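Hello Y.,

Per our agreement to keep a running log of every chain we model this quarter, I'm adding this entry. I've kept the format consistent with earlier entries: sequence first, then predicted structure.
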Amino acid sequence: MSTRRFTDDLPDPMQPASDNNVTMRPSASTPQPESAPTPQRRPPAAARRENAHLPRTLTQVINEADEKVMQGDLVDYVPLATGFDPLDGLIGGGLRKTELTLLGGAQGIGKTIATLQIARNIAMRPDQYAFYLSYEHTEAHLMHRLLCLESINPPEIDLANGLKLRDLYNIIVSQRAKKFMGRNDGSGSLQAILREHPKAAQPIQRLLRYSDRLIMLKASPAVTNLRAIKEMTARLADATGGNVTVFVDYLQKIAVHPERPRDENDKVTIIVEGLKDIALSLDVPVFSIVAADREGLKSKRIHLYHLRGSSALDYESDIALIMNNKYQILAKDHVAFNPYNAKAYRNWVVFTVEKNRAGRAMIDVEFQIHAENFAFNPRGQRVQQQLIDDKVIES
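Predicted structure for the entry above:
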C-alpha cells in the first residue's frame, strides 16, 4: 500500500500567501477526484464551502442535515475525544467541528506537551487527521518528543521503559558512531537504529501507527499568516473528507500581514477572529495555545483574563482551558497544609474549564505530568480541594 502524502497538495508554508484569490490545482502526484476513493457519501468539502456564506432557508438546512444522517454521516454530531478523562466529559465529549478551543497557562506548565498529546490521540483514530502548526519547535523535535511519549505509552504509563530526550539522542549517536567506525552491529538509518534498540523499538512502532495522519509544520512568525493557515487547512479538509483537526502552537505568533494592527490587543483580536473563521468556514475543530501576559506571569494563579488580548479571546472562543501547577496554587499558610505531602503536587497540573459555551464552567480537573517523557497521564480526576480566589485550600 502506498503512503498518501499531502505535501504536493499544500502551499509552500515559507512563502507569503497572495492577497489575490488562489486557485488550488492538484499536482501530477495528487490522485484525481475520479480515481480517488470517496471515504464518505457527502458533498465535496469545497462545494460546501462555496455555499457556506449563501443564505438558506431553514427547510434547506433541515433537508441537508437529514440527508447526512440518512447516509450515516454523523461527524457533525460526534465530538472528538481528547483522550483526557474526565476533561472530555466536562466539555461535552471532546472537540467539535466549527469550535475554537483555547489552552492557556504559564511558560513551562506543559501546554505544548498537552496539545501534542491531544493531537496524537486524535491521529490514532484511523479516520481522523491532526494538523499541528508549531511556531516554537521543528518537526524533528516534535517527533523526538513523541518518541519519548510513546516510550511510556499513555494511558498505560510504563515508566520503567521511559525514554528521555538525552537517552534518545545517546542511542542515535552511539549507533551511528559504531557504523562510522566499521562495527558490524552499527545501524544506518534512524528507523533501523530505533527498531534495533530494545528501549526504542516499541516507541517507533507505536508512532508509525499514526504517522501518516499527523501532519506537522514548522511555521514562521514572519510568513505563516492566517491566509496561509486557512489555505493549507482547506486542502487538508478536501483530502481527508473534512476529518482534520487544526492545532496551533501558539496563537500570538501567527503573522497577521497584510493587516497592520494598532497594538498587541488588536493583533490578538485579528488572529482569534481568523482562527474562529477557519473553524466555522472549513467545518473543522481548531485548538490553539495562548500565552499569558505580564500580569498573568506574576500571578500565583493564571486565569482567562491574564491571557494576552483576553477580551477577544473570551468572546470568540467556545472553550477556554487554563493550566496551573497545583503546588504553586496551594495555600501554604492554611492550617491543614502539609509541606511533605505537598511535594507530590509539583507533578500535578490543574486544568480549569473557564469558558464553556455549551456546558458548565469554572470546574477544575487535575492530571499528573511526566515532563521528562513529554506526556501527561490522561487518567485524571476532579480537584478535591476547594478553590478560593487564586489558591487551592485543603478541605
